[in-house]
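Before surveying the methods themselves, it helps to consider a single example record, giving the amino acid sequence and backbone structure tokens:
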Amino acid sequence: MTAAGMTAAAADDRPGPDPGGLLRVGSWPGPAGAGQNQFIRLFLDGLASAGCTIVALDEVAAIGRRRDLDILILHWPERVFREAPGRIAALRKLRALPRLLDGRAPGTKVVWLAHNLEPHDARPLQRLLWAPFMRALTARVDAVLTLAPGTLAPVLAAFPALGPKPAHAAWHPAYPGAAVSEAERLALRRARGWDDSVRVLGYCGQVRRYKGVDTLLAAFRRTTDPALRLLVAGQPWRAGPLIGDLEAAAAADARIALDLRDLPEADFRAALGSADVVVAPFRRYLHSGSLIHALSAARPVLTPATPFAESLQTALGPDWVRTWRGPLTAARLAAGAAPRPAGAPPMAAFAAAAVGADVAVWLRTLSGRGHR
């Protein structure tokens, strides 16, 4: 079942979950509410393929209108701020969410899918309210789900109320169709003036300081290998010193190429396909769709050793997931630019259908519905 076939959220006063039917899973948000985030579509399509009926809940208020859910999955609690047009509305939504969870139908189990430990680039009000908000939220959820085995521990450490509750680690689903053919790869590189005598390090994604783009730029500028190239492709978060630094570096070093814009899907795929190794110098994060996207494109990644990256390295091998500890130096960057392996990483377990099947078994157990 695709996202187009999912049940839309609507006012609903039907009775509670049906113990004999398909597992009914509500998702806040659904695909429409998530905007351009592909994760939601992949994850929910995987659950649908495993026999779950998906109910899309695209705003906080929709949670209170469904009385027929077996499972309610909460993504990104910080959405209470993004859904609201201003501070007063955000405070109302922030207070409303715990109340709606308190009023859920008997038998509905609430799962927090912990994408992050805290909002990225949080505003002052978000930073002030985050800790008490999450204490209230984690006290009310019934279980927690993460997207790699190694990320369960930091989530449970950050939110003690989750300690005695059921917890499960699935994989972040892979992105189908991300890889380019060899002919496409060569054509993309020729279009940028690169042949196979050069090794291209690529950064592909939002260009934001917290993602460590400044440290990548500094390390690359200290390299001396004339065969190295750096491609930074993606949308700048906002104009500022980082963008000026990138543009000045590209003007001074012909090895640096920039493509600073909101990349359509085809152009993002082309940027990944042009690179030999994708560098993800992220400073603080729990899970990364960027790493999964690069690996889905059969591009090795070079990234700091974090619980998520180490889980990927254990599953896929050190040739595909290359890590470093400590500061990013020119030597570490050059070493990580080793030729990419042949073929593609072994990502069968990351396919949306495989992830959905794994999570559906856990959700059925959590709901008391057993294996169906």
About this structure: The chain has two domains: 3-173+351-367, 182-347. Residues 3-173+351-367 form a domain with the Rossmann fold fold (CATH 3.40.50.2000). The longest strand covers residues 228-234. The chain has a mean pLDDT of 91.
